[in-house]
Amino acid sequence: MTLPSDGFDVITLTLLHPVQSIPIQTWTFSGKDVISIGRAPDNNVVLYSAVVSRRHAELRRNGDIWELTNLGTNGTYLNGKRVQQSIVANGSVLRLARSGPNLKIQFPGEPSVGLENAATASPSPPDPSLLQVTPDYSPPDQNTQEHYGDVDRGPEAKAKQVANRSCTHQRTAANSLFCPDCGQPTQVQQIIRGYQVVRVLGRGGMGTTYLTWKDDQIRVLKEINADLVDNPKAQQLFEREAHTLQQLNHPGVPRFFDFFTEAGKRYLVMEMIYGQDLERWVLQKGPVSSQQAIDWMVQACEVLDYLHSRETPIIHRDIKPGNLLSRVGTQQLVVLDFGAVRAMKSPALGTRIGAEGYSAPEQDRGRPVLQSDLYSVGSTLVYLLTGSGPSRFYRQIQGNVRLWLDGQPEATRIKPELRSVIMRVTDPLPEKRYTTARDLAAALLGCVRTPSLQA
Q1: 318: annotated active-site residue
Q2: Catalytic pick among 181, 318, 337, 427
Q3: Of all helices (H) and strands (E), which one includes residue 352?
């Protein structure tokens, strides 16, 4: 569920990958009236390609519309048609030169204009919301020079790729991961069961994730760490993660592709999602607004409702900002890291898993319940709204150590209605919290409609 936005005051440009037309890098501008695009480093959007002019195109806001102007010698295309100047609709695809990079233009919160209704429109690229997960990964920063080559799309791109299997990658910049001509990886670190490892995405306590290429598809490969190969409990958790993901089908859950053993190591294959986890988001940009925090946590509740409502309910057990990823361009939330999941079959004592400050008291004692995940949503809200870890807010209250916001200077920016929801959902006793994720989501949305939160 998405909250109201500022309409055309915010514009997002998303660079699409060669062949697949999936998001690679994004630029979001708020309150900016002119956006320059080109090869020169002083542009707002810098694209390194031989066919892109130093100052190639310009987007200019005029009231409630955006206008595109071509400045490049190789031409600028909008939805497949060469233009000199044109009004831009939400969802349009901008291409620099006939074979240059493609940028998808979006105005968050505004309805997309279907490209099939635009004059001389080319097919729309896949909706980014169809892409799934990538743990511990953020797109290349726009200030770096790493890029993924020029973008081509559709059947012509596929034919071009097949014809260039022996491509020498001559037009590839030194820091590019994929060739602009054939779309193939330019640097392969190793090959695992046919998956060409292009780069390391992240390293965690349980495993290492890689960006890989196989059968003309980008995939995420998760490898259990070498020091855990002989650890039965770690192996069990890794297998449980794969088994759980294989059963799930939800846009806010990592999509499963494969699970195999190679050279004594276990590997999990997932589809790539481009985005930033909420922990990094706050570290880089500071606390978020109440409306943004509620929007994300309502989406988290929707995923938890899906997990909790299964025939055998699933407890995630590791909801925290670092395991919640916001998709590039859409801010749709994806819940990551299912290595700690547990089926709700019996009240038997289990392994104590959870992040300090985010896990509920009963979970710390090895007895998680469905409301334990809701507790973690409440403590995550505290981090998003204050920028401080929830452990800073724990106090001894009436004989119990619990999260407590009253009298805390950092918590003064949390509106009373939202504070009340957080205090209830983080009550030490599960029966005093909201009963279901759907109930919690309704309470959060109720806060949005209050005058003090809208102020």
Answers
A1: yes
A2: 318
A3: none
